[in-house]
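Good morning C.,

I know you're traveling, so I'll keep this short. The sequence:
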Amino acid sequence: MTPAIPVSVVDFVNAWPVTWGFLKGAVEGFLPINDVPSVCAERLARSEVQAGIIPAIEAARIPGVRIVRGVGIAAYERVRSVLLVSRVPFENVRSVALDTSSRSSAAMVRILLADLFGASPEYHRAVPDLPRMLSSADAALLIGDPALTTDVSAYRVLDLAEGWNRLTGLPLVTAVWAVRRDVSPEPFLWSRDYARHRMPEILDAAMARTGLDRRLLTEYFEMNLHYDLDDDDERGLAEFYRRAAAHGLIPSPDLPPFAGVPLVPRSFS
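The tokens, ready to paste straight into the viewer:
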């Protein structure tokens, strides 16, 4: 029997529409390992797993990986689960606490504060607890479930997709499936298609996880986020890499190679 391929998956609700098939054991031949985004990238870099849903910027930092074309986590104008929360105007931010599970969003915050607001603050990493983060910094980055569930109404809030769209006019790609060379891209499309046919189940689980109502979560999954990536998303990713390289955050602005996808992705009934 062929050993199962280890794959690192993020168990945040925003990732469920691409990871649900793995989390539910519906994609045969893979062993899912639940991680936060930063650990997904670390496992893949150490070759502890052969694939992972990783922060988009990490695909540019890990040699020998390919990006699965056509699937990922992205937003056009508002992402809702990647937020910079500040006690002061963004142009006056002098210190930022970064959610420890973040990688792409941490890079995006640096780019947006510099290129959109002309700020160059100091950065440090912190557990995603907003009061504690803001006790030692002007602003805090929250991602994933903490960003969705934390009350930020008392602060200035920059949704990173809104900021990126304002700066570039392009979508924000937050996460991609990255695979080692010998791993086929098809199962990652199957997982997305499996989830697509089980959105009521995913919504029930998201309500239980977050305590948010069904209407808000439906809007989040169907209007804020998208999981089928197209040419605009790839242009957004390329611009992200270009700016990240210009800021010294990655060694090269070049996109990693893409793994091909089938013309007709498999669907589950």
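Safe travels,
E.
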